[in-house]
Amino acid sequence: MNNLIEKKTYYNILYSYYGELLTDKQKEVFVAYYEEDFSLKEIADSLGISRNAVHDALKTCIKNLEHFENVLKLYEKNTKRSILYQEYENNETKELINKLKEME
């Protein structure tokens, strides 16, 4: 991932899958940085911790999210499933695909 926007989007997607597996403090830091677009200093000031502690917490969050995806592969599987749905919807099986989607 070369682009900063792509990275942020990817991490937000991973957070939507695995965010509940993070600690409350990690969630707070992640949301402040990636969703609310606060700077490291702003987050540090609001939490009463150092900028370096915020940076370390974000690195840990990303490492954990990537680890969860590497092990569970929920995002990867969902992406593959969506691609297959799109391919099959273009064929005769549209009715079956709609029934499968209703079951999710």
Describe this structure in words.
The chain contains 6 helices and no strands. Helix content is 80%, strand content 0%. The chain has 2 domains: 1-72, Arc Repressor Mutant, subunit A (Orthogonal Bundle); 73-104. By secondary structure, the chain is mainly α. α2 (24-35) crosses α4 (51-72) and α3 packs across α4. The protein has helices spanning 4-18, 24-35, 40-47, 51-72, 74-89, 94-103. It starts with a helix and ends with a helix.
Give a topology summary.
Elements: H1 4-18, H2 24-35, H3 40-47, H4 51-72, H5 74-89, H6 94-103
In short:
The protein has helices at 4-18, 24-35, 40-47, 51-72, 74-89, 94-103. It has 104 residues and is mainly α. The chain is elongated.
Helix content: over 70%
In total, how many domains does the architecture comprise? 2
What is the CATH architecture term of the largest domain? Orthogonal Bundle
Number of β-strand runs = 0
Q: Largest sheet at a glance?
A: none
- Structural class of the helix and strand makeup? mainly alpha
> Which range does the strand content fall in?
under 5%
- Secondary-structure element series: HHHHHH
CATH fold descriptor of the largest domain: Arc Repressor Mutant, subunit A
Average pLDDT, all residues: 91
